[in-house]
């Protein structure tokens, strides 16, 4: 859909395609999805699956999410590498504070054009809650995953194969001698639930705009990420070298998993 321009005030109004209930921009939470005329579950399901695929605006929003995810993951990976190279004894403090600014800024920048998810966990959760349509959710998930993989390729190209292996994907690692897989899974699942619970409570719930206003939501979500990152970095011995590097399912730390997978894949395939 084309962007609308107010003739009376001469200002740009966001496209209807960027307005959906799961957006981080409270002023854009309008449900523009089509409803099935029949109440039969077959018709309702068909309408849910097929609605939105022909809307070029949603594809544009997904592309913006791809670009934003690439930039976020690349910047986050570089920050992880820099913090690790300083061999700081207090990495949790640096990671926590950095994440507050990192996520808040990217949500502020992307909320008007794509909703500001920049994270598959948020997108999938809003799909399950009925706040994000099926077509938008699928396109966002693909765009976010591709963006994280692209960031891994850029990091690999920036540092070269040998150094990229030494940096271990910017911190996504698990030494099973220090922490068992089941323990790490429990930590990831519990902290992700806490992150989603707080993110919905302060930013994604459509009623939040009336309580916190249009500007506080992204900042509060940034604080949520900062706290969850601070609580998990350094849980086991080592930071970016051995042990457990911290929660990987929070908004920008989640990218470490895809970042590492894409990084190792490129190292093998790209001589």
TrEMBL record:
Name of the protein in its database record: Related to aquaporin
What Gene Ontology terms describe where this protein resides (cellular component)? Answer: membrane
Q: Which GO terms describe its molecular function?
A: channel activity
- Transmembrane region positions? 92-109, 121-143, 184-204, 216-236
Q: What keywords are annotated for this sequence in UniProt?
A: Membrane, Transmembrane, Transmembrane helix, Transport
Membrane topology, as annotated? Multi-pass membrane protein
> Which family is it part of?
Belongs to the MIP/aquaporin (TC 1.A.8) family.
Source domain of life: Eukaryota
Q: Where in the cell is it found?
A: Membrane
Signal peptide residue numbers? none
């Amino acid at each position: 859909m084309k962007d609308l321009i107010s003739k009376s005030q001469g200002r740009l109004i966001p496209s209807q395609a960027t307005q959906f209930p799961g957006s981080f921009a409270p002023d854009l939470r309008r449900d523009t999805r089509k409803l099935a005329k029949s109440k039969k579950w077959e018709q309702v399901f068909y309408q849910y699956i097929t609605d939105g695929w022909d809307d070029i605006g949603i594809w544009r929003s997904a592309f913006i999410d791809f670009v934003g995810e690439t930039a976020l993951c690349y910047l986050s990976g570089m920050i992880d590498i820099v913090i690790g190279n300083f061999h700081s004894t207090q990495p949790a403090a640096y990671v926590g504070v950095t994440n507050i600014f990192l996520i808040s800024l990217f949500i502020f920048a992307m909320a008007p054009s794509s909703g500001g998810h920049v994270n598959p966990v948020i997108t999938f959760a809003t799909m399950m809650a009925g706040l994000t349509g099926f077509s938008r959710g699928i396109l966002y998930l693909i765009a976010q995953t591709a963006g994280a993989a692209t960031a891994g390729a850029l990091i690999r190209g920036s540092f070269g194969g040998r150094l990229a292996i030494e940096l271990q994907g910017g911190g996504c690692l698990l030494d099973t001698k220090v922490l068992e897989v089941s323990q790490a899974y429990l930590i990831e699942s519990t902290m992700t639930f806490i992150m989603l619970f707080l993110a919905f409570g302060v930013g994604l719930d459509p009623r939040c705009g009336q309580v916190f206003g249009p500007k506080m939501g992204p900042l509060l979500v940034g604080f949520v990420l900062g706290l969850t990152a601070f609580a998990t970095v350094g849980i086991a011995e080592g930071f970016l070298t051995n042990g457990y590097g911290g929660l990987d399912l929070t908004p920008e730390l989640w990218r470490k998993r895809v970042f590492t997978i894409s990084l190792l894949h490129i190292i093998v395939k790209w001589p």
